[in-house]
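testing teh design pipeline on a random one, pls ignore if ur not involved
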């Protein structure tokens, strides 16, 4: 059984999230960045939590994005807890998600064209409704907290996890924390290791395969038009070895628009690869022919910055290394490039400043992922193979500009 199916079975079918014995537990759902944790939760788990309200228990989903202190997080939780059971005042909870609920509001504002009486939010916290909200969380409510990578620097991890501990223990509600495995760095990483050991009761690892993650994204109704190409797109994505739901959505959205405007389906492979490359690096893979060498936009980037050896490696040396019968390991790309540059400098009779050599090596380190992916997509995946140049350039232009017009 797949990882996501196992998790759903454990959390929903086996009723971990509904079992009173687990009240007061803090559950951490972690995995690598982009692996689709939020997509899994929102699409596979959240719809099953509606039945909590049948027992007058609240389910609350809160993003840390835009929150400047723990008080605003707590206030939003209470607002959403009340609304999740009462099914009213939805505008209040959406407003609370946008604005910090601890500052003093002006009497009213216009939010997305609708006039909101913000005094009603303040009134919520001075009325019996706030006590009702607490009752809905007490002994069986569920709070999910997401977007840890967007946490404000103004909120310390100690305070944040202190809030989680307080809510889970005082309210005897369950808390689910969705985060990336490596979301914190430096001092925060050290603090995180300490606080999670003291706070978290259950660790769950989200690690879908590419097939599994792709299928979960493709299941959306809007992609039905792409059913004839579902397996092909999946196979091309597998060749990239990218495990990232956001990339898959970008690919499928682009393919959907391309097919809907009746352009050649032969270009879908190139569109898949170029969409992923652009999403990761903000470069397309278009090129111009120059003395029998294809000068790609990535190569132009290094040429314009004056790093000619990097550009030469990508256009002349790399094809010799990666288009042969037994290509080198892709992981060796930057080491080979650095060795190539250092050797070239030694053999060159002209004087080169050590400062320039150092800056070139620093440029390689800075753009390691870009360089490796360029070699991978151009020389290993051969992104432009099998389609006419005009179509290939149209694909690049569409990905770069986001505009695809039908031919007259």
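output:
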């Amino acid at each position: 059984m797949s990882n996501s199916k196992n998790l759903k079975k454990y959390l929903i079918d086996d009723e971990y999230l509904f079992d009173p014995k687990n009240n007061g537990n803090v559950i951490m759902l972690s995995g690598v960045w982009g692996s689709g944790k939020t997509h899994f939760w929102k699409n596979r788990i959240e719809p099953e939590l509606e039945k909590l309200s049948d027992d007058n228990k609240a389910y609350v989903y809160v993003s840390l994005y835009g929150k400047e202190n723990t008080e605003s997080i707590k206030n939003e939780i209470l607002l959403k807890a009340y609304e999740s059971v009462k099914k009213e005042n939805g505008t209040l909870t959406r407003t609370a998600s946008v604005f910090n609920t601890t500052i003093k509001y002006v009497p009213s504002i216009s939010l997305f064209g609708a006039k909101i009486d913000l005094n009603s939010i303040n009134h919520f916290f001075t009325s019996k409704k706030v006590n009702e909200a607490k009752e809905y969380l007490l002994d069986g409510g569920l709070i999910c907290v997401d977007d840890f990578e967007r946490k404000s620097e103004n909120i310390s991890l100690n305070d944040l996890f202190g809030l989680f501990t307080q809510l889970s223990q005082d309210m005897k509600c369950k808390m689910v924390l969705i985060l990336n495995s490596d979301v914190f760095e430096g001092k925060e990483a050290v603090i995180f290791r300490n606080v999670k050991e003291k706070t978290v009761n259950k660790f769950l690892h989200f690690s879908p395969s590419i097939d599994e993650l792709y299928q979960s994204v493709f299941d959306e109704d809007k992609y039905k038009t792409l059913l004839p190409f579902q397996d092909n797109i999946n196979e091309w994505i597998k060749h990239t070895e990218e495990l990232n739901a956001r990339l898959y959505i970008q690919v499928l959205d682009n393919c959907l628009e391309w097919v809907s405007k009746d352009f050649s389906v032969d270009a879908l492979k190139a569109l898949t690869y170029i969409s992923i490359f652009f999403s990761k690096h903000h470069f397309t893979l278009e090129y111009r022919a120059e003395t029998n060498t294809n000068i790609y936009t990535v190569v132009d980037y290094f040429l314009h910055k004056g790093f000619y050896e990097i550009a030469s490696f990508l256009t002349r040396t790399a094809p010799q290394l990666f288009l042969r019968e037994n290509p080198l390991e892709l992981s060796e790309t930057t080491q080979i490039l650095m060795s190539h540059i250092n050797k070239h400098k030694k053999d060159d009779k002209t004087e080169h400043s050590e400062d320039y050599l150092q800056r070139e090596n620093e440029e390689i380190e800075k753009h390691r992922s870009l360089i490796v992916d360029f070699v991978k997509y151009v020389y290993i995946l051969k992104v432009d193979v099998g389609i006419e140049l005009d179509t290939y350039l149209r694909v690049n232009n569409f990905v770069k500009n986001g505009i695809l017009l039908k031919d007259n």
